[in-house]
Amino acid sequence: MANKQVNFTIVPEEGQEPPRVYSNFCAIAHTPFDITLSFCEVLPLSERDLKDAEADHVVRAPVRSRIVLPVSVVPGLITALQEHLRAYSESAGARNPVH
After folding, report:
1. Hey, CA dihedral for 18, 24, 25, 26, is it positive or negative?
2. pLDDT value at position 1?
3. How would you write the chain as a 3-class SS string?
4. Cα 95 to the chain's mean position, in Å?
5. ∠ CA 75-40-64, rounded to 5°
6. Is 0.90 surpassed by the pTM of this model?
7. Pairing label, strands 34-40, 25-30
8. Which of 24, 51, 95, 99 has minimal Cβ neighbours within 10 Å of its Cβ?
9. 37-26-29-11 Cα dihedral, nearest 10 degrees
10. φ and ψ at 81, to 5 degrees?
11. What is the chain's Cα-based Rg?
């Protein structure tokens, strides 16, 4: 049987939307097989949090979502993020410069 190539586009399924999760920090770890992105929400620190951070040089942030990606997906993700950041920067202009 001959191999047949089929071209298709994968799109997110419409309907029941998963909840949106806010994150302003991403910790990254890897194994030989995958890369894990741990999205966290870092809130403003209280006086006590600041003292604790000065003592042990650690600020704990709750993980809001953890995504595990096969390594083969990462180059495409990086390319897509770069393209979206470029498009965002062009549309936002001087209002929201990206550094």
Report:
1. positive
2. 62
3. CCCCCCCCCCCCCCCCCCCCCCCCEEEEEECCCEEEEEEECCCCCCHHHHHHHHHHCCCCCCEEEEEEEEHHHHHHHHHHHHHHHHHHHHHHHHHCCCC
4. 23
5. 100
6. no
7. antiparallel
8. 99
9. 20
10. -65, -45
11. 19
List the structure tokens of 87: 């498009």
Give the mean pLDDT per block of 10 residues along the chain (99 residues): 84 84 95 97 90 89 95 96 93 68
Q: Which residues contact 58 (CB under 8 A, 6 or more apart)?
A: 52
Q: Is 9 left (phi over 0), alpha (psi -120 to 50) or beta?
A: beta
